[in-house]
# Entry
Amino acid sequence: MTPTLQLFLVISATLFCIGLLAVLSRRHAIFILIGIELMLAAANLNFIAFWRFGPQPQPPTGVMIAIFSIAIAAAEAVVGLAMVIAVYRHYRTTNVDQFDQLKG
Amino acid sequence: MAHIITALILIPLAGALFVSAARPNYSRGIALGFNAFTSILGLTLWRTFDATAAGLQLTERHAWIPAIGAEYLVGVDGLSLLLVLLTSLVVPFAFLAQRSGRGFCALMLIMQSALYGTFTAQNFVLWFLFYEMSLVPAFLLIKIWGGENRDRAATKFFVYTFLGSVAMLLSFLGIYFAKGTFDFGTLAVLGKSGLLTGKLAWLGFAGIFLGLAVKVPLFPFHTWLPDAYETAPTGVSMVLTGVLSKMGVYGFVRLLLPFFPNQIKIIGPWLLALAVCSIVFASLAAWAQRDLKRMVAYLSINHLGYCMLGLFAVTASPVVAAKIDMQAALSGVFMQIFNHGITAAALFYYVGLLEQRRGLRGIDNFGGLMQRTPLLCGWMSVAMFSSLGLPGLNGFIGEFLIFKGSFAIAASFTAVAVIGLFVTAIVFARAMQALFSGSLAESCSAFPDLFRSEKLVIVPVTLLMFAIGIAPQFIFNIFNTTVVQMTRLFA
Amino acid sequence: MNSAAFVVIAILTLAAAFASATLQKLMHAALMFALTFVGIAAFFFLLGAEFVGLVQVFVYVGAVAVLIVFTILLTRRDVQDTGKPNWGGAIIAIAVFGGLLWAILKTPALFIAAPQIEALTVKRIGGVLMTDYVWPLQCVGLLLTAALIGALILVMEDRDEG
Amino acid sequence: MTRGIVTNLWLIPAVPLAASLIILSLANSRRSAGAVLAIIGQVAALALSILAFSLTLQTPGFRAIHNFTWFTFGEQTLRIGWVLDPLAAAMLVMIALVGLCIFIFSIGYMADDKNFTRFFTYLSFFSGAMLGVVIANSLLLLFVCWELVGLASYLLIGFWIEKPSAAAAAKKAFITTRIGDMGFFLGILWLYGRSGTLLFYNDGSGCLENAGLVALGASATFVALLIFCGAVGKSGQFPLHVWLPDAMEGPTPVSALIHAATMVAAGVFLVARVYPLFSFGAINGVTPSLTVVVSIGVITALMASLIALGQFDIKRILAYSTVSQLGLMMVSLGVGGVAAGMMHLIAHGFFKALLFLGAGSVIHGCHQEHDIRKMGGLRRLMPITFLTYAIGMMALSGVPFFFSGGWTKEEILHATAHWHASHLPHYLMLAGVVLTALYMTRQMIYIFFGNRRAASEDAHESPPVMTMPLIVLASCSIVLSAILTPAWPWLHGYLTGESAHFDIAVLIQPTLFVSLALVAGGIALGFAIYRRVAGADPLEHAQPALFRFLENKMWLDELYDRTVVAYSRMAARLSDWMDRNVWDGLVRAVSGIGQIFGILTDNFDERGINAGIDEATTGTRGIGRVMSAWHSGQIQTYLRAVGVSVLVLLVLYAWLT
# Structure
């Protein structure tokens, strides 16, 4: 038995929800970043899986999107981490509960 | 002249860049200069526009993101042109009304560009982009330059309109998946047989309806408006009420009514009831206000309620309406769009003038102004009478046609809506009594009358009110063909 | 496609991901994070997107994970997540998982095996990148530059303050 | 020639309007220029009106129209136009002439006012708008001018704007008439919807011509009644009459021109103009709508003349008399005597203007005193005023033979006598005749007879600029009777389009003696009661309760204040409250996402429950506050919202598939 598309999707859904869990329940900014990266990776996995299981032959759109998404995720991670450092300097904490300057 | 619409959209953006780069005390001048430019372009557009030809004109079409059916497609028909002209009129008026710095001018110009875009885009993706683009500057303008409670009002404004927008976006995705196009024209033709089926159709309808109803705003989604208008600086209030609220009405005409004719027919009476509630409750609430700006804000809801009444009457009535009634209601709605734009903006301007002089704007903070500032009172009463629909001024024409059309189609609703007309009269009569008559209040005894610069703003606008009230044909010419075309679409 | 490999990779990846999301010590979590991404890269290999898998390993394991570690070191003061976890968030995450799972399992169209494909060579990817996706490529380049500069500006010491 | 005049009929209202605009642009100090311009405008309007009038004399039943397109909407056109027929022409001349007299009178009366030019701006504006009402050949154009007339009335009542009572009266007038106008507006809409045109006459296809009336069918009754609402408001008919007595806060020339002679008569004119709508489908001259007109007219006429008995303000008495006379005219129209009603309107225009100007002269002479109890014995001091006032009083009371009002009232009584539905209006109107004579006698005695009292100690006759108009109007009131007598009913024939024959035999009819006796009785009764009046009212002695009832205007104002006004205010406050508390909350409840979100937030108590309760109890403004609370600035709060939204989408998806 070879893995079906369904199985890949289940894996990616699980990864996504683990990421969501990290994002929603952790207090530390870096954990939140980790969670976001996990969610992005899950999405990438979806793109690749759909490309692989889609009707063939087809242009490698899914792969392309995954590549770009990785590039953008890298940029996002860089900026995000830089912000964590900057915020840490300012507040002396990385606990997101205490970041509430955007309070309305 | 091929790219005139694109130029209209881009010039304010360029203006925003210039303003940001220039020294702060020049910013208003630059903004006005760019507005002169857009006004000229607007007039050129009007001249180039062939009022007798049906359909979109001066279209520009470029591929954008073919994968999701998004293209750069702009064009004008009568309604779009009317709104473009209104924007070109109200925005400079707002700039003149407000002392403003660099950021303010830049944001206003961005908003102007978004408005032009919204009124000319004919593809949903592009349209939505502009629609949302107007939201951000409006939010910032209220949040940064607003008065008391600005944070809360700005947030409320943003959250309401944004939730509406999201709902609308989802609906449109549904439509796109069903029909594979974002093009307004194509969708409108397809809409006759229903774009979506079953529950999905209702969901799609609800999403778009919510987004637009919040924007207009339609009762009971209007509660953000008094707060936002009250706290926004004068110039922003003028643009918000004069043009931004028209985006909702425009959306109803362009999107909801042609796309979901069956749904609208089924819940027609409820929609009419909402419009009537907007008219009656808003005018009554205006009566209870002590703050002039809030009062004008509620009347703005009331006046847009008339637009909604006309539109729903045209499309929501179970019986097939006579052509004359549909055309009357539609023409009336378009006329009302334009009239309310200038009249409500003028009213906010006057309230702004009073606030500038007094520092407060409660209805009880003034008294006996007629003795001290007869000119201000005189011109202000013209705007008030125009707003309450006095014949001879612009407000009457639109309201008469709306009522004419909708009375023939939905008599009972219209008869109730007349209460709104009546209460509006009470509101203004009370305001005039409180502000202008009686003995001169101590606090107002040092008021200066209108300055020359203020007269320069007021006189042309007031003359326009008279011109439309007495010989409205030149406005009707803009959209008559469009009205005929839409009547066919809705019939 | 090898199902045994699939099962192994799946267990490894998910376990690592769960660990990285829930461990108390940040440093441990960061290591688990790197492991997760190795696992995901393995999935990409399995799916025949070797290039993406490699990119994944380079970017995440080589760059992002290292960055995270550096950040942890730079913000030494709290290397442990001390705040109590937010159970509301966990409930939402589980609910979303349930919803997604239900949606995936009830869709029969997803129950398909992989068709045969011709290998996706790096040459082909390069060709596509330089033709169809040349504009997005430029944009990403711009974005990365901007991110680089932005990150630098963010973390630069403010001398006046210091 | 004919065409030329009819096509250019618009000049008649346009000239005073233009004059008004020019005066408006004058500086406040250029008083004489303002007055001269206004009078030139009015003279021009009068000349043009007479020209138009002479045109209608050529053929009996003359009617010429000029219609044109106002604007085109969609493929439809909205046409308006003007009409010249005896009804319009007679009104034109009356309005222009009375207006001219009052303009001249105002020069004297307003001489000391600091806003002299503004006064003439408003007056000219009014005159133009009123002339516009008369020549309109479209219900819409009529409505437009009708509203402008209302605006002029509003501005002029509140002319002394620093007086709070004047401002309040202006507001009251504006709003009360607006109630009627909303009915009128609905009537217009209904008429337009049914008949497809608002033109009165359009070569057979107008809404008052056969085709239009047939298209209306049974709805004609409702349309007529709705239009009548407008007339009720404008003409001060019960139950909307309350604004008219208050309107006396305005300067006296205004009361004379607007609230006696012309504008308030516009309601009667309106009913006469659209009479075919009222009489459509009549059986023996009775239709439901006409019956309503008669009933309202009778109630108004009797009620107002009773209230007039209990008033002490010289102008208020005249105001109630106007209300009552307008009721009488309505009765006349209702029972089918259109010509009689219009004749009375025209005659009333002259003698009521005369009475008001006389009152103005008295007030001017008595240093702005309005209370008749403080006057007295002015007969000697102000002989011209006295004489002219007496003529007006005779005409109003309906003394036959020499006074115009006598003949027209006679004709109305005649018409009521022949009404098929009921004879009650006839008898009630006879009672009204007695009452009219009674209250006018009372007023005369208070002002001109007896001893001098406080305000009349050093009263003086007014200058010629004020007395001349009095004399002109007085002579008009007398001369007019020549064309009103049944012996040579020229005006009647002119209005109905029949030719009038001279027949002295019908001059003396049995009913004439009845009314003569009633008028004489009324006057005699008045003399008997009020002969020795000094300060307190004899009626007050005899019937204190009844008198208080009348003096307080039957407590109708108070009744309205406690009911209609109070309820509307309550509705306004309720709307405001609902807006702040209910609709805000409703929207929040609808956006249930927020609620789920609130439950899933760990500090649920703080944000979800407390905010909700706070809202309900302290009544702050709903969603903004809660939204703002959610807007905590904390990333996770936002992300959680996103998570919940995903869930909602999933649920939606589940529901759809």
Q: What stands out?
A: The domain at 5-96 of chain A is CATH 1.10.287.3510 (Helix Hairpins). Chain A has a mean pLDDT of 83. The helical segments of chain A are 5-25, 29-53, 61-91. Chain A is about 75% helix and 0% strand.
